[in-house]
Specification:
- With 208 residues, this protein is α+β, with helices and mostly antiparallel strands.
- It has two domains: 85 residues, Glutaredoxin (3-Layer(aba) Sandwich), CATH 3.40.30.10; 108 residues, Glutathione S-transferase Yfyf (Class Pi), Chain A, domain 2 (Up-down Bundle).
- Helix content is 56%, strand content 10%.
- The protein is built from nine helices and four strands.
- It has a four-stranded mixed β-sheet with strand order 2-1-3-4, with helices on one face.
């Protein structure tokens, strides 16, 4: 079966999908639209293929699936990354939704051009991120045995959060895994998984 994943030439919302496809041993065509200068409109041919005129979306077996979380969750279920029961699956959903909120808090920093304003914004978002998200996620992992967010094996919640932390290192220079042992253990579990490690080693180098 041929899989075609469409997104910009960056990690963003598509990277957890790429990582999970790699984890599942799926060969896929990684179709990347130019990202710069921002905002860069989608090429007309890609936009026309997307149901909602946006990316990411994926085509396979005569089907098309849009929206990043719908795609990520679909393949997480396919490759047994949704926990061991319905409650754990719901926990995965809860934590991924919270990671989305965490990531969105950093979005304004990407577009800010004024150095003084950017520095102040970084200080404020870093402080609020530690209090509202990172310390709580760290506690959840430690209370769950110190390795995973949910259950006793890796889930898509781990992959999604680890990639968000990794992207923060790339874009903002943050090193939150050095501050929180639970986050570091989860992060290392994800990026030391052989198939994911192989994908990360070979993936294109991008600014975002």
């Amino acid at each position: 079966m041929a899989y075609k994943l469409y997104y910009y030439d960056g990690r963003g919302y598509a990277e957890p999908i790429r990582m999970i496809l790699s984890y599942g041993g799926v060969d896929f065509e990684d179709i990347r639209a130019p990202m710069f200068p921002i905002p860069q409109p989608l090429p007309a041919d890609i936009k026309a293929k997307s149901t909602w005129g946006q990316v990411p979306f994926i085509e396979f077996d005569g089907k098309k699936l849009n929206q990043s979380l719908a795609i990520t969750r679909y393949f997480a279920k396919k490759f047994d990354l949704v926990g061991s029961n319905e409650f754990e699956a719901a926990q995965c959903d809860e934590y991924v939704d919270t990671v989305v909120d965490y990531v969105k808090a950093w979005f304004p920093l990407v577009m800010e051009q004024d150095a003084e304003k950017l520095k102040k914004m970084e200080e404020e978002v870093t402080k609020s991120s530690r209090e509202k998200y990172l310390s709580k996620f760290n506690a959840i992992i430690l209370e769950n045995g110190g390795q995973f967010l949910v259950g006793k094996k890796m889930t898509w919640a781990d992959i999604y959060f680890a990639q968000a932390l990794n992207n923060g290192e790339l874009i903002h220079g943050t090193k939150f895994t050095e501050e929180y042992p639970g986050l570091k253990a989860m992060y290392d579990n994800v990026f030391n998984t052989p198939a994911i490690k192989k994908w990360v080693k070979g993936r294109p180098s991008t600014k975002f």
